Amino acid sequence: MEGRRSCTTTDEPTPLHTLEPMRRTVFNRVFAVVYSSAILALLYHHGQTLHHSTTPVSLFVSFSLFVSDLVLGFMWITQLPFRLLPVRRKEFPENLEKVMKREDYPALDIFICTADPYKEPPISVVNTALSVMAYDYPTEKISVYVSDDGGSMLTLFAFMEAAKFATHWLPFCRNNRIVERSPEAFFGSNHSWNYETDKIKMLYDAMEERVKHVVEMGRVDDAYINSKGEQEAFHKWVDGFSRQDHPTVIQVLLDNSEDKDITGDLMPNLIYVSRQKSRTSPHHFKAGALNALLRVSAIMTNAPIVLTLDCDTNSNDAETLLRVLCYLSNPSIRSKYGFVQFPQRFRGINRDDIYGAELTRIFIINSLGWDGLMGPGIYGTGCFFSRRVFFGAPSSLLSPEIVQLNPNNVVQMSIQSEAISALAHKVAGCTYEDDTNWGSKIGFRYGSLVEDYYTGYHLHCEGWKSIFCHPDRPAFHGNAPISLFDVLNQSTRWTIGILEVAFSKYSPIIFGTRAMGLLMGSSYAHYSFWPIWSIPITTYAFLPQLALLNGVNIFPKVTGLWFYLYMFLFLGAYLQDALEFMSVGVTFRKWWSDQRMWMIRGLSCFLFGFIEFVLMSLGISTHGFNVTSKTVDEEQSKRYEQGVFEFGVSSPIFVPLTITAIINLFSFLSGLVKIMGGSDVEELCLQMLIASFAVVNCLPIYKAMILRSDKGKIHAKTIIVASFLASALYMAASLIF
Fold first, then answer.
1. Is position 310 annotated in a ligand binding site?
2. The domain that contains 220 carries what CATH number?
3. What is the pLDDT of residues 575-612, one digit of tens each?
4. Is 120 annotated as a binding residue?
5. Number of domains composing the chain
6. 556-577 mean pLDDT
7. Is this model's pTM higher than 0.85 or not?
């Protein structure tokens, strides 16, 4: 395998990149053997206990623990592929010009998706676009396409303003060698101020004020329209135009063949696209928007490299594209490796990352492990694709329905020519995909709410490999949710999406294993079956505690050998997890927050997402795509910076968490009373340990229930409902035990 050696992928004296296995590989493999043996021993113990169960209660308890530990074992085993061959890459962009002239750099099409100007403020989307328009790269080779799936004139206006500001911003970044090329990030950081900086800041503030004022009004007044071309563009918003039903709108805001900045250098292309929507035609959410951009961009520029970005993912390194070329500039690599994925990194994360928003396990640790196999999946943003990857397997090009969409087609006409405009409008139509391979064999794949995971999975099944690029300086910075409700709402959507894959005909456990092999199939299965974490988490959050409340012992005594097996499995898993986090620079407190959020998700979004998926499968419920809000409340932001949990929304998703907190607290106190009253400590030890561990993790919930008076506390209604259900659960357990 590629990852078994330290190497460069070129024989040139000036290497563009290197690859080497990580030092923890041997330890991971040895520990995998030992820990797997311990799991088998525990399952054997459960089997013996089940066999000797003589009462319905003991049978129920034994079976529940057996199923829970079987799920834990399955999830641990499917995580092994990430640990067997972790590798680390390094790029040398400074060597690129030694082997390739700048004029020979390939063109780049950048896709930025937005859908709601109120949940995703246009000024934030503008900052994302400006940051990549200012890449350290020949500007005439960059084309930025903004997909506005909400069809909002407010977003179009914001980008008209951005196009004007960009003529000042790009030369400012270039002449001053600015690293953070998002204006918002640059002006919010520590840097030296001078007359030129003050001037560009005034221009930005003026633009920001106009954009925010238009959004507040909800319309674009004539006072803000400065030309006949702008006026004609806004005339497309007529009566009957809505976000669910409107014609295609494509507006070229900057043309790199004629538009120049204030210093006389050519500007990148900047194109606004709002595909046609109709209530009678499926639109396939973000995947549909990306496929529309794939087709529109193919008609207008057809660059061989495509970058996809979320609306709030700003470039944090002007040389990122050069790092990508360290791989994709090599034809032999480009023929096998379909995309280069950067980890998602976030700005504004508080000290302890209380919501585990960095998702270090997924975006970094597991990605380093995946990179030693076929490479990481797609994470929805910060991914550079070879356009060819969307059109069939590496060995067989799947030709699209018209030659202009072929990834090898060379566009000869101006992007503003009538022929190009007419064809671009056609391929963005809501019925264009009918009776074609789009979404099934070509482009981003339909069939799951998590189009990034699903598309990456299919590309790997087709034989494509990928590369994980993790430089010391983050390539991109996004905005993480700062309220628990937004985090859980987003995770619920992911839960439904990955379950759609897990229980489809393309299930990774069967189809994926056949197509990619056991290791890659298992790794994708680990993600697709993620929601089943809710089974052991829910079981261990309630069953031992309810038994303890009723004075029933369900675990081995401290003096028994099986007790030490339980302790080894618990401590072994947690210590390995903590060491892996710290090996990539994560603090202990952030790791603790991550494991706490794993339990919170298991009791909330995994559980609710699983239930909604089952109801949807039975035809009882349907779901839609809810955009995660990117707006920020000042008080909420202040509480987040202080590390205070935000429960300010009254939602059923908080009820199981509150019940868990109540049951575990009373269980722990009950256990203490029993021990002080003379009960056998050896019998209650494991149940007391589990209850105390849960109580420590529930501390933010107790504070939000009892000690806080701010708007972020848990609603009284939630506490009342949870208290009633906890009492009912206790009484039911009393009858059973």
1. yes
2. 3.90.550.10
3. 999 999 999 999 999 999 999 999 999 999 999 999 89
4. yes
5. 2
6. 94
7. yes
